[in-house]
Predict the 3D structure of the following.
Amino acid sequence: MKTLTVDLPGRAYEIQIERGLLDQVGEHCRAVLPKAERLAVVTDSTVGPLYGQRVLDSLTQAGFQACLITVPAGEPSKSLAVLERVYDALTGFGLTRTDAVAALGGGVVGDLAGFAAATLFRGVDFVQIPTTLLAQVDSSVGGKVAIDLKAGKNLAGAFWQPRLVLMDPAVLDTLPEQIFLEGMAEVVKYGCIFDRTFFDFLEARPNRAALMAEMEHILYTCCDLKRGVVVEDERDTGNRMLLNFGHTLGHAYELAGNYTRWSHGAAVAAGMCTAARLGVSLGVTPADLPERIEALCAALALPIRIPCTQADYAAAIGLDKKGVGHRISLILLEGLGHGIPYPMEKDQVLAALDALLEVL
Ligand code: NAD
Ligand code: GLY
C-alpha cells in the first residue's frame, strides 16, 4: 500500500493506493468516519454494475448501512437536474449530517457527488473512490467539486476536500482504451510541468501494458505532485494554475470540435504540444523540448495538433476563467519539468499563435 497525506491545516486526509483496495473500502472508511452510520455511494451506470456490489459488501462488513445511487454515465449527469435526483436519493436514504457520501466513478461522479456532499446540510463528509485514470491522478485530489450550468462547464462549484481518497489501480483494467489514454494526457502534463525524471520514466514506457505494470508508482507520483500544489494553493489563486498547462489552448480545441469531436484529454495533449512550440517562439522554452512531448503524445495515440480558427482561440482565451481583464497567464515550460505562469496581453497571445500556426 502506498499512502500520501494531503496536509491541509485541520483537514488533512490520506490518499491510499493499492491493488485490491476496493474490497477494503469499509475498514478504511470506518477508520476516518468512526461515528457515521450511513454511507451513500454515488456511482454511474457503467461503474456501478462493475464494482458497486464489492464496495457495498465491504461497507456493510464494516458496519455501515450502505446504498448505491446510480446516475447515467457521462458528462450530462453533472447537471442541476441530476443533482436534484441525488439530493432526493440521499435524503430518502435517511442520510444525516453525521453520515457520509462516497463517489465511486470517474471525474463526473466525483464532481457531482462531491458537490452534493459539499452542499447537503451545509456539508457532509465525503470519500473519493476514483475509477478512471484522470480521476485518480487529478480530479479526486484537491477538493474541487462542481456541476455544469447552461452557461458553461463547472460553473457552480465548491472547494470541498474529501476525508479520504481510495485508489485501486486494478479498476483501470476495465477502462476503454480511449479513456485510459485521455487520462495519460494529464499524467504527461505532470512530467512536463513538475518532474523531468518522471517524464523520462514515461518516455521509456509509451504503451498501456508497460504503464499498467508501474501504475502504483505513476499514481503515487502524480498525486504527490498534485498534493504539493494543493497544500500550497488550495484556493487556486497562485501556483495551482500550473496544472492548467495545455488546458487554455485545449479549451480552444474542445470549442473547435463543438465539445464532441475532441475529448478533453485529446485537446489537452494538443494544447501541451502547441504551448511548447509557443514557448519556443517566445524564447521561453528550449528548442528541443516540443519534439519530445510530441513524440510521447504520438506514442500514446494522442493528437499533437488540432485544427482550430483564430476565433476559437480568441473565444477560449477571452472566456478562460483564470484570465483577468485583458491579460492572461499562459503556462509555458522554461525547461522539462519546469512550468511557469507567463502573463501576456490576450491580443499578444493571439498574435503569437497566428505567427506560430503559419510555420507549423
Ligand atoms: P467520466 O467520469 O465521464 O468517466 C469516463 C467514462 O468511463 C464514463 O463512461 C464512466 O462510466 C467510465 N468508467 C469510469 N471508470 C471506469 C472503469 N474503471 N471501467 C470502465 N469504465 C469506467 O470522465 P473522467 O474523464 O473520469 O472525468 C471527466 C470529468 O472530470 C469532467 O466533468 C471534468 O470537468 C472533471 N474534472 C474535474 C477535476 C477536478 O479537479 N474536480 C479535474 C479534472 C477533470
Ligand atoms: N484540475 C485542476 C485543479 O485541480 O486545480
Observations:
- The first strand starts at residue 2 and ends at 6.
- The radius of gyration is 20 Å.
- Residues 138, 142, 144, 236, 240, 243 surround glycine (ligand 2) (CB under 6 Å).
- The longest helix spans residues 177-194.
